[in-house]
Amino acid sequence: MYELDSAPSVPATARREVRAVLTDWQVSPEAIDTAVQVISEIAANAVEHTLSSRVQFEVGCYPDGEIHVAVRDSGPRPEAPLAARTDGTLKERGRGLLLVDTLTSKWGAEPVPENGLLVWAMIQTGGPA
């Protein structure tokens, strides 16, 4: 588990750390790229859309090779991830969760005690790491 002050640099730090950990675990480059993109999107949402002073993130790999990434914020809002717009009104922004949904086998969000939200995602790798 990594814990950082909420700042615009959090997504970059999350990408770098997730890539390093999964490379050490000898995960396939394609699965690493997917996990890096997913953690970046979730971390960016935590920084941009909450009032968190701290952001935590983690990465894990199950014996079957499935990758787990998660980001926890400590902000009072939002109580759930903002729904992605699918009506074509967003040109440059607002598609992060659509991307997460496309790239992952499953994902979700859970309120955490006191304040905040834990957003997690699972990424299939096609086999044991």
Automatic annotation (TrEMBL):
Residues 12-106 form the Histidine kinase/HSP90-like ATPase domain. Gene3D superfamilies: Histidine kinase-like ATPase, C-terminal domain. Keywords: Kinase, Serine/threonine-protein kinase, Transferase. GO terms for molecular function: protein serine/threonine kinase activity. The keyword Endoplasmic reticulum does not apply. Coiled coil: none annotated. This is Anti-sigma regulatory factor (Ser/Thr protein kinase).
